[in-house]
Amino acid sequence: MDDQGFGDAVYTLKLGGYDYSLVAFSCPLPDEQRSDRVIAEAWDTSYVLYDGIPDNAEIERLRENAPRQEAGRFGPRDLVLSRANKSMRFFEHVAYNLAHGRQPERDRLGEVGYLLRTTAVYGNGKFGIADRFVLAEREGLGGPFQAEMLTVWLIREFSHDLVEHVARCRAPETFVPLAPELRRHIGVGNSTGLGMAPFLANHPQLLNNWVLAREIALARVRSKQHLNAASLDRLAELWRQAGMHLDQWSVEDDALMARILGLRGEWAEAQAWIAPARLRAISCPVESLLDRSRFMSVDFQELLAALVIEMAGAENDDLVDTMAAVREATFQPGMRLAALRGLLRDHYGWALAVAFDRPAETAQFWYVSQEKLEPRLGRRASEPGADLELPLDIARQMQRLAADLADEPETKTVATFLARFPQHRHAVRRMQIAANAPYSEIHDNLLSDRCLPINLLRCKLAFFGASKFDPRSDRWTRITLFQGAPTAGEIAAGETNDCWLPVLR
Predict the structure, then answer these.
(1) Residues 308 and 348 in one domain
(2) Among the three residues 436, 471, 496, which one is the final residue of a domain in this structure?
(3) Is residue 289 domain-shared with residue 388, that is, in the same domain?
């Protein structure tokens, strides 16, 4: 790295008998080229997670290709491809203060919480990098997106070192490093828009596996007949932590801020619920808490559910191995239409209830912008492009399938039916998946004028451990990842800390 923080770095760790290296490149970037859009062509930093330890020739190859991202050429030892831009004002604030012997302002650190903000983290064979099967059986990386999340955690380490390097070079006589508690609170930012929204609809089996793991974890802790002293202490500790996190979470979005304020009040009001004497005196105390929460806001209910799962700790770690989906369920052409009608009735009543004769229920359409190469939402009444609509109209597809099924004999097979109505193959396949995957569908009409893409984004990002959601509209949001997580130095020293709902203490 030169004195301005431009150059390259390699971070290597050992995991499950393998070496993995983050190869990072930092480049000058004119302000007019800085963009968080997926179609940007230049970034402050770019990265490859490399399988092994790269030699000089491999680093040179990556130096040529990583900054080009999608336009570069990659191979089977390149596991993950990513890029990130600086949070310019906060990066400069931290560098300036460290150079002058001071720590960054705690309030500003709490407001932003990251030095670098990723705009894409690619895995699973995109752009010529390694296919998922390369990692699927490796210890620690078998779960979905584990390699990508490892990359983001390493980017976080790089961001800490980069800002300290820049500050040290500016004033080596007065420089001070980041205080450990502040370093720990600096995560990695992420800017996510509509490009991620269709993912959940396009991967029904994976969505089911994620939600099912969460529901099983919740059912396990809910069924506990009693909580021991350690669990009661943990419950109280997490309750306090959640309260402090809510107090430190502020956004510019008026609607979300109103929900946060309401949740703060509910959380404080319900403090008496977790009195140890009360919980020790009743059977199934977690079930009692969850049942009582039904009269509170949905935000309160979901936060409490997350808390009791976290309280259980390692008891649910085995569920990680159930969250991947190597392939979708096998298509069943021999299924009788009687069984297909049963699936439609049992799993898609919500779809059949949508009144598609009302213009409001088809007010929006999804398409891919030719200019931006990203999924977009158009207004059907006022914008062109509906003829290029993406097939995310799951509820409407099910209604059309139901109409064509109505007069068909129950003994006919799916194969025979689809020979006459091939346009329904996609809907039939989804329906067969739902038979064994009860959480595979989003029970909402994604064409409705009431559909808010931000809810799809928050659902997926929450499974990645995202916090401090900061919506900039109903179509994109900023988040923070790994805020409060242990740093590399802490892990090497055998230290751990609780990063659930990070708090700057």
Answers:
(1) no
(2) 436
(3) no
Tell me the pairing of strands 78-86 and 114-122: antiparallel
Element (H, E) at 279: helix 276-280
> Looking at the 3D structure of the chain, how many domains does it have?
3
Does any domain span residue 411? yes
Cα separation, 377 vs 186, in Å, equals 33
**In residues, how long is the chain?**
505
Residue 37 confidence (pLDDT): 67
pLDDT digits (tens, 9 = 90+) for 479-503: 999 999 999 999 999 887 778 899 9
- In a domain? residue 505: no
* pLDDT, tens only, 1-11: 999 999 999 99
Q: Are residues 238 and 145 in the same domain?
A: no
How far is it, in rounded angstroms, from Cα 405 to Cα 172?
76
| Domain with 365 in it | 337-436
Asked, for residue 293, whether it belongs to a domain, the answer is: yes
Helix (H) / strand (E) containing 461: helix 453-463
Cross-strand bridge partners of residue 481: 188
- Name the average pLDDT for the chain: 93
pTM: 0.91
Res 196: pLDDT: 81
H/E run at residue 415? helix 414-420
Q: How far apart are CA 182 and CA 165, in angstroms?
A: 16
Q: pLDDT tens digit string along 216-247?
A: 999 999 999 999 999 999 999 999 999 999 99
CA separation for the pair 278, 280 (Å, rounded)? 6
Mean pLDDT on 356-382: 88
According to DSSP, residue 413 is labeled: B
CA distance 309 to 317: 11
CA triple 315-142-68, angle to 5 deg: 130
For residues 159 and 261, membership in a common domain is answered with no
**H or E element in which residue 18 lies:** strand 18-26
Nearest to 239 by CA among 263, 271, 208, 216: 271
CA distance 51 to 81: 12
Q: What SS3 state is found at 478?
A: strand
Q: Which of 389, 410, 436 is the last residue of a domain?
A: 436
Q: What is the DSSP string of 41-110?
A: S--SEEEEEEES---HHHHHHHHHHGGGGGGS---TTEEEEEEEEE-HHHHHHHHHHHHTT-PPPHHHHH
Nearest alpha carbon to residue 450 among 377, 375, 361, 346: 361
pLDDT digits (tens, 9 = 90+) for 65-121: 999 998 999 999 999 999 999 999 999 999 999 999 999 999 999 888 999 999 889
- Looking at the structure, tell me whether residues 117 and 32 fall in a common domain: yes
Q: Quick one: which of 77, 81, 111 has its CA closest to 94?
A: 111
